């Protein structure tokens, strides 16, 4: 190439790392949204409306989104490092740390069995595609697979 100056290469996979984080954040957002929808649908049921414990049920429904664990920003930090460091030893180390963080997130999610139980109850009670637990678990599996593939 005569007289053409090429821009320095961007870190490999920057967009795909951003997509991984977006997938994870979207799964968390959807879990909270689905829990809120379930609470509203549950409170709209005629038998719930007639129940003398309606005020307590309303308070419980308002607290349901609190069942989704707070996972923190460790994953974002690891993926950001992996993105900027590329295939260097530091980049690979960040990916291994990301896998460890994903395993920790899975333990946190598994420590809230009520979330999976509530998802099953919600599907029976109001139907629909509610994913309080399964959406988060699927996102974790997808992320683990993606990060593992990048380590090869």
Can you walk through the features of this model?
This protein has 152 residues and is mainly α. The chain is built from seven helices and no strands. The chain has helices at residues 14-44, 46-50, 54-63, 74-85, 89-110, 113-126, 134-151. The relative contact order is 0.16.
Task: Summarize the helices and strands and which ones pair or pack.
Elements: H1 14-44, H2 46-50, H3 54-63, H4 74-85, H5 89-110, H6 113-126, H7 134-151
Helix pairs in contact: 1-3, 1-4, 1-7, 4-5, 5-7
Kindly list the characteristics that best describe this protein.
mainly alpha
Number of helices: 7
User: What percentage of the residues does DSSP assign to strands (E)?
Assistant: under 5%
Overall 3D form: elongated
Q: Low-confidence parts, pLDDT < 50 over ≥5 residues?
A: 5-12
Q: What is the succession of H and E elements? A: HHHHHHH
**Could you give the distance between the termini?**
33 Å
How many distinct beta strands? Answer: 0
Radius of gyration, CA atoms, in whole angstroms: 21 Å
Q: Tell me roughly what share of residues is in helical segments.
A: over 70%
**Largest sheet, described in full?**
none
Class computed from helices, strands and strand pairing: mainly alpha
């Amino acid at each position: 190439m005569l007289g053409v100056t090429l821009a320095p290469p961007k870190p490999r996979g920057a967009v795909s790392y951003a997509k991984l984080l977006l997938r994870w954040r979207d799964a968390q957002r959807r879990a909270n949204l689905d829990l809120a929808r379930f609470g509203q649908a549950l409170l709209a049921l005629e038998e719930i409306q007639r129940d003398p414990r309606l005020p307590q049920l309303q308070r419980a429904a308002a607290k349901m989104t609190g069942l989704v664990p707070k996972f923190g920003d460790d994953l974002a930090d690891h993926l950001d490092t992996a993105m900027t460091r590329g295939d260097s030893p530091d980049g690979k180390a960040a990916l291994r740390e990301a896998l460890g963080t994903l395993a920790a997130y899975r333990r946190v999610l598994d420590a809230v069995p009520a979330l999976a139980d509530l998802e099953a109850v919600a599907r029976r009670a109001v139907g629909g595609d509610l994913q309080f637990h399964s959406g988060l678990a699927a996102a974790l599996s997808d992320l683990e697979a993606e990060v593992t593939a990048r380590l090869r």
